[in-house]
Amino acid sequence: MARVPAVFGALDLRPGQPVVGLDFDGVLNIVQLGRLPDGFERHVVELDRANWPTHPYIRPLPPGRHPVPHGIVVNPAHGAMVRGWVDAGAAVVWATTWERAVLPNAVLCDLPELPVLELSRVVPEESLPTRTADWKVLGLQTAFAGHPLVWVDDFGGDRRGESTYGDPPAPWLVVAPDEEVGLTAAQAATVLAFVERHRPAPAHSGPAR
Predict the structure, then answer these.
(1) Are 77 and 36 in contact (CB under 8 A)?
(2) What is the largest CA-CA distance in the chain?
(3) 114 lies in a domain?
C-alpha cells in the first residue's frame, strides 16, 4: 500500500489501482436555470471558514467570523454512482477547488466519506498554471503517477476538449459533465467500465497442496 502525503483522509493505494478524481461544482452541484431538474434538491449551506482554501483558483471569503451562506443544487442519486466506482475497486478522491471545505456537502449528495486531494499542496505556487483545469490535471497526474486515472470535471467552463488535458503514460480518462446537468448515469457507467477494465487482477496464493 502507498500513501499520498497531499491527500487529506484515509487513502491506501494498491499498485495499479484506478483513481477517480471527482469535482464538485458542475458535476454534483449544478448550475440550476429555471425549473429544478428531476431528482435534484436545493440547499443553502454555510461555507466552511475553518477549511476554506487560500489558493488563487477560488474566491476568498469576506472577512470576519459571520456565517457565509451558499446555495447548492445536488442530487442524492449521485451517491449510488460513486459507491459503484468504489465497490468496483477505484480509489475515489475529491479533486475540487473547494479542497477540504467540500466535505460538509458530501452528505447532501449521499456520498460515502472520500479523501481530499489538496491540490494546492501538490503544485508549488511558483508553478501554478493560468487555467484552473490545467492545475487540476497537473495535481492529479503528479499525485497519482502510474495509476489508471479518471478525471470527472466540468473543466470550469474551459471546453477545450478531452484530448488537450494531459497525456500520461498510465491509462487516462476524462469525463466532462455539463454544468447545467451534472454527472449522468451514462457517464457514471463509462467511469465504472474504465475502473473494471483497469483494476489490478486479484492476487492468488497458488494452488493448494
Answers:
(1) no
(2) 69
(3) yes
**C-alpha–C-alpha distance, residues 178 and 203, integer Å:** 39
The answer as to whether 134 is a domain residue is yes
Model confidence pLDDT, tens digit, residues 65-110: 999 999 999 999 999 999 999 999 999 999 999 999 999 999 999 9
Q: Where are the beta strands (DSSP E) in the chain?
A: 7-8, 19-22, 41-46, 69-74, 91-94, 116-117, 149-152, 172-175
CA distance 116 to 53: 12
Of 153, 159, 120, nearest to 7 by C-alpha is 120
Q: What is the CATH number of the domain that holds 122?
A: 3.40.50
Domain of residue 140: give its range: 7-198
Listing DSSP states for 160-189 in one string gives: --GGGS---SS-EEEE--BTTTBS-HHHHH
Rounded distance between C-alpha atoms, residue 93 and residue 115, angstroms: 5
- As for how many domains the chain has, the answer is 1
Does 155 map to a domain?
yes
CB 8 within 8 A of CB 116: yes
Name residue 79's amino acid: G
pTM: 0.92
